Sequence to fold (286 residues):
Amino acid sequence: MRGGRAAAARAAGWGWGLLLVAPALAMVVLFFLYPLGFSAVSAFRSREGEWTLANFAKAFELYHLDMLFTLAIVLLSTLLVALLAVAIGGYLTLGENRTAVAVLRWLYRWPLFIPFIVASQMMRSVLAKNGLMNNALIGSGIIEPLQAASLLDWRGVVVTFVWKQTPFVALMVAGAMASLDRSTIEAARDLGAGRLRILAEIVVPQVRPTLVVGLILSFVTMLSVMSVPMMINPNSPTMITVDMAYRINAHGDYGVANALGFVSYAMAGLVGWIYLRHGVRQGGAR
Fold:
């Protein structure tokens, strides 16, 4: 009797739980899983509806350099984001100048609230040949007017990505560092360790999981942005998000565009798989 009541209570609990998550689950299925599945299937079908690999063959033939360029840009940006985020979080945790720490804590978060398209337009005004950066360097006498050069190429894309994503990762890393046990840090200081050594050998290993999660999210975000390469890098090669937009708007070629999207899914999935495999290994070791 009691077992039947307990089973009925558990079933009712499951029912209420499913009812509560149903709206969110419906949104995920409707706006994420269905478009993802439709895009993946369309990548393997021709305009006549036949199953084929022609879309991938055409995508690799026309845009293989853009694929490598995309991967290189995002990896480089992710590496620089990691270095800057660790540096910011480390100074907020280990810095001794309270004024500098307060100013940095107030200042570094600003780009977090700026959309990518606004950041792109701003960087066009800063990094152009006659932009704010070159005018400031010329005005201060650091360079001559003839030495001014435009950074509106792959370098501008990297600068924009790093400037935009560093606050996101730094916020996560700084929070993780702030929650650490200070006794290990103080013990290292008592033994004569410098701040850089404490950061590299004590602090960073303890916040590595948080850092990796932030970097993976940043990698996926930068991989999917179209406004930054389209507005800042008018040259070729470019990122595959721009190629996807071009195939659809100029040629109505959804097959090749979906094949390029499938390649970006594979890049993001590979990074996620590496992280999950590393996490499983660490969990097994424990």
Summary: The chain has eleven helices and no strands. Residues 2-43 form the longest helix (42 residues).
